[in-house]
Amino acid sequence: MIFDDGHKTQPITKLQVNEAFKRVKANGGSAGVDGETIKDITENPRRHLYPLWNRLASGSYFPKPVREVKIPKGNGGTRSLGIPTVIDRVAQQVIATELETMVDKTFSVHSYGYRPNRSAHDAVSQCRINCMRYSWVIDLDIKGFFDNIDHGLMLKAVEYHTKQKHILLYVKRWLEAPVQLSDGGMLYTEGKGTPQGGVISPVLANIFMDIVFDKWMEKQHPDVEFERYADDIVVHCTHKYAALKLLGSIRGRLKSCHLEINEEKSRIVYCHRNQKKQPKLKETYQKFDFLGFTFKPRTVRVRGKQVLGFTPAISQKSTSRIASELRKRDIHRWVQLPLGKIAELLRPKIMGWVNYYGKFRLSDMRKLFRILHIRLVKWVRNKYRRFRRKEWVYAYRYLQKVSRCYPNLFYHWQYPVLRP
Hints:
The chain is of the alpha+beta class.
């Protein structure tokens, strides 16, 4: 072998590169600007991974441009994602793994996003507890967070945790990597912004927000409870005037770090429930969304009694997005397939929806699956001639009978509340 680990200027080993590729391969994903897929690298790993390690370990690695992909948002707009090449994702995974082992133990207990042994459900659960304890919530939305991260401040934040030159070197190069637009043009960062979609982007976002927000809050407002998942933040207050004062303080802090609050989406919300003292005037906002769930007053059962609580359930935006996805599939036209095959094709998606959104108030997903059941009723009428000339209710009763006889056919049928 021409090169050996001992001759390299940067402390990166071949084992780190191989382990990073395993994680990238497990996560999947499409090709970048070079068109090389994970399958291409799997078929001949030495041809691709050895040169990558050689460049990383010698300091001569430079990332390729990031491919821009537009994905739809819940409000009808689009969000830009940056897709690095597979080789660049492997390189990012090497540095991201190093950074995670250094910084995770220093992060705030209020931070939940992209951390080991922490999840969005943990953040929502803690938010539910705090909403029952505190009467007011500041629902924060940062305007264009990933598009406005200042490169100088970002590098200072990374340098706060580590002085290793190869980490600072490659983070700087990834921040400065241009974006190849969908029309073929090139977009250069010009000192701010980082593409959302890279392997290292969540780690960098956590490092940045930990210093910009978490540590500042713990120092300036140590008694205030909050939950942060990446750039989604919920802050809890006892009084409305305290919430107004704190919102102004947060606005000034973010402005000093070259970030801006989205005034249209950020709001102060009253967590209304029976046990709390009511404000003199009815508040404009009594609900908010957090990580795909809507928090609002709902009837809950406590010790056998019905009381008014303030709890989360699947949001209307999430319901509309999933319903749109179901409609696009045209399930009622899959008459060439048996019902079991349809259930098999939909099982991964349904399992993901139920396991995430069904964690809180599973019964609120009935509206969502009613859309699927209507499509299946249409499939029954198109598939079987005996139901075509009858009222649709006969096909619906047939579907109900199937769900009772085969409760494990569709994943959500194992829950009686979600059956047709």
